[in-house]
Amino acid sequence: MCRWNLYAVAAAFAMIAMPASGAVIFEIGSVFADPGSTGNTIEVDVQNTGGSSILIGGFDFQINANLDIDFTGAGFSTSAPYLFTGDSFDQLATPPQPLNTSTGSSLSAGDISFSGDGDTLGAGQTMGLALVAFDVSPTAAPGPVTVLFSTDPALANLSDPSGNSITIDSLVGGTIDVTGVVPEPSTAAMLLAALMGLGAWGLMRPGPAASGFTAAEPGRPDRPVPLIYY
Amino acid sequence: MTSRRSLLAIPQALLPIVFLVSMPVFAITYPALPTAAVDVSCCPAVTRTVAVHNAADLQAALSGAQLGDNIVLDAGATYEGNFIVSVPGGSAGWVTVSSSAAYALPSPGTRVGPSDAVHMAKIMSPSAGDSTGDKTRAALGSDLNATNLAALGVHHYRFIGIEFATGLTAVNYGVVQFGPTNSSGQSSPSSQPHDIIFDRCLIHGNDPIATTFPDGTAWLNHGVYLDAANSAIVDSAVYNFWSNSQTDSQAIFCGGGPGPRLLQNTLVSGGTEGWLCGGAPLPYTNQIPTDITIVHNYFTNPIAWRTSTPVIPYVKNRFELKVGQRVRITDNVFENSWDRGNGQAGYAVLLTPRPAQDANYVIGSPVLMSNVVDDIVLSNNVVRNVGAFLSTGLYDSQCISGAGSLPAGTPCAQSARLLVSDNMADYDAAIYPASGLLFGFMQDFSVKRNTLLGHNSGGGLGQPSTWGNRDQSIGCSATFGTNFEFSYNILLQGVAGDCTFDPANILVSSWLGTDTVTSNLAANVSGAVLNDWTNFGHSSSIAATEASIGLASSELTLQGTSPYFGMGIGANLACFNEAAIRAGTPSALCPLPPEVAGGGSSPSVTGFKVLFGSQSYDAIGSSRTRLPWQITGIQATFSEPITAGNAGSLAGITATGFSGLGTNTLTWTFNPFALGIFTANLAGTGPNALTDAAGHGLGSGAGFSQTLEVLWGDFNDDGSVNSQDQVLVNTATRNPYNILADMNGDGVVNATDVLLVRSRIGTSLH
């Protein structure tokens, strides 16, 4: 299946499972990468779409791709401000710890407030959880590779400073678009139809649009692809 | 308020009364238990049902009985006569004699009472005498006048739901009688009755106070005469047997003959004796009763008998052996015994051999040297409201003194091997001002772990809880015999001795011969001077109350707050359900004392810890579902030392190490286990069984099981390890030590533990 078909499916899924307003969202970015490339990065963020700030004591997550993707580590240099900047257990531990606890086609990472006091995720704010490094297999087929969160509560968790669970309303996956393939005309037509349908649905839908979306870049498909798991 | 409970309570600090007298090295021989038992499991197979509706039909059915018969009597009907039981035909099975409403009786294991009579048929001896005018014969039994000895070997009868009663006669020698003829000659087993069981029956005389007797004042009512091997009375009531003259009356009497015999869960009320073996010529030549088991019975007498007039039912002993061997008397309640009209103190139990008894009947006959009271286990009983608990004797006093027909100094058989242990006896000077535990001569006599409480419900001084009683014919210089052990007893109201209460009491070693007397707790509730306490280096004015020594209100155990708790002092009858025994609904027997073969309780698990790092955690007392550590072993604590077991005694996980054998604590180690569920099974049977020194398997053979869910890192016990656990453990690094956060078991909670949780994030037991 070509990548455009995946986008169509993802878009259709998004129509029935958009994140609600006032939610906490874990989201994965979307990036391009060439087959055989190394040292690529993809960001994992947490977003608070609600009207109140949230005090966070710790988080952990696991992301999964296919075997063409080798997650090699996770760091704190996120484009959005890192959640526990200056209060990172991983960074302040002796010795300091990497953010990730596993590598491979799945990567687990997590951190907690070193002080135990927690750190604030403000209303409407997005903060970084990890900048995940990855390599792409030289034999990877061109097209999008979906990167999803594990839905196991033990592997996607947000805790307040007292150890209580904070509900994660949405786990929004991302893609690693392995480059090198031009869409077939028939596939492009299908994508266009899907996008038209999505646009029409958006016009009819009351309320705010999915806040996890960023504007589609020219020449690229819409991203990120919102996938919601419970 | 009784004197024992109220007077001169003193601080416990003034109770240094656990004493040590002497501990010579000697080997006491403890009694043997019965070597045979009666199987009373219900009910025999029936191949023919014979319904009988009148006395004639009943006698005909008994005369023509075949093994496999069920002779069914009409519930509510009375069958009056002196019914003779015959040797049944056939080769296998039993003859059942039952009520047509036996199905409505309580199930086996529950005692019947008078209220169950409506479901029973009554077999009653004639009120007006039989055709020969003999009013003394039993309602049912073997033919005492038979001349054909082969006809006397009556066997395999089981009576279920029958009410046996006596007519309104002045004299009755027995309501039920299975025994010898009136002449000797029944020495062959084939001529002796055997295999006779009374199951949920009422066997009773007439109420001496409420009954009007047409023949004038009744003076003798015997109950059951049962000299049959493999015989039993179970879940029954035997009562209203009494006399008002110097002739003794027994509820249940055995003269002799082989066992086994069983009395179980039965109410026994007989004036002078509830149960008596011996005291008359042995019925079968040189065959003393053996292998007798007396358990879960309620020996009592109506309290109204104590003061009734003009009828005075004589009362003295609840249980007595003048002959017997291998007798187990455990788990019974003895109460209401006093002296009325016979000069004895109102003992609960009397164990005094009478090997010379035959000589009383047949002048010049040899003394029966086998006529002994040997191998008696008197344990786990509760005694209340009696004049005294126990009287014992090594010799027949008549042998020694020359009473009766015997010349003085006639050598008599000696009794031996008596264990009196783990009993609670509370006797009352107001019932009879005697002594509680009265010792005569003894050989291999052990008195251990009893709670002996002398008091006076009428006020004033209580009686001594223990009293030495040397035979007066020898005098005060005598010792008690050989191999005497008196240890770990509570003696409230002190100790006294005979010889006009001379300073020497039984705890003076010079009285004792070869003895061990140690670790007893003796106190005097009245503050009166105890005899010769200075001989033990103790104060002579020690006073204490039950409360001050920590006795529980039931008097059966010490409270956990007692300074003597756990020291093995006094009876520990936590297993004893006194109310249930009184009500006839007993459950399990208490463990036999460890002194007898097979005795002692089986070991049980009292603690079960998992090991991790250098730490351990008690999994039994925990409310957690999951254990948050990587466990490396199991450590079990037992109620007693375990002397046999191995690494394979733990199943459910493969042990790689094992240690602690011979102690109360065993440890199994295994490869680190961080995630998963397993059930640790400790074996109680089989080749890997954990057993104590007596060979008892763990949990009476049932073993022990503990399921363990292990999820290393799951601090909050929610079944998965995630950032919440990490946050909580991180918080725990700043709080007092919390073993649940000590993930590596090193005794501290620090960043290492946080990192361990972090490394475990994502694991779960889902």
Keywords:
heterodimer; A: alpha+beta; Immunoglobulin-like; 6-stranded mixed β-sheet; 5-stranded mixed β-sheet; 17% helix; 32% strand; globular; disordered C terminus; B: mainly beta; 12-stranded parallel β-sheet; 50 strands; elongated
Would you kindly provide a written description of the structure presented here, covering whatever features stand out?
The complex is a heterodimer of chains A (230) and B (766). Chain A has 230 residues and is α+β, with helices and mostly antiparallel strands. Chain A has a single domain, classed as Immunoglobulin-like, CATH 2.60.40.680. Helices cover 17% and strands 32% of the residues of chain A. Chain A is built from 3 helices and 13 strands, in the order αββββββαβββββββα. In chain A, helix 1 runs parallel beside helix 3. Chain A starts with a helix and ends in a 26-residue tail after the last helix. Chain B is mostly beta strands and 766 residues long. Chain B has 3 domains: 323 residues, no CATH class; 212 residues, no CATH class; 156 residues, Sandwich (Immunoglobulin-like), CATH 2.60.40. Helix content of chain B is 7%, strand content 31%. Chain B is built from 9 helices and 50 strands. In chain B, a hairpin with a 2-residue loop joins strand 42 and strand 43. In chain B, helix 8 packs antiparallel against helix 9. Chain B starts with a helix and ends in a 6-residue tail after the last helix. The N terminus of chain B is likely disordered. At the A-B interface, strand 5, strand 7 and strand 11 of A face helix 8 and helix 9 of B.
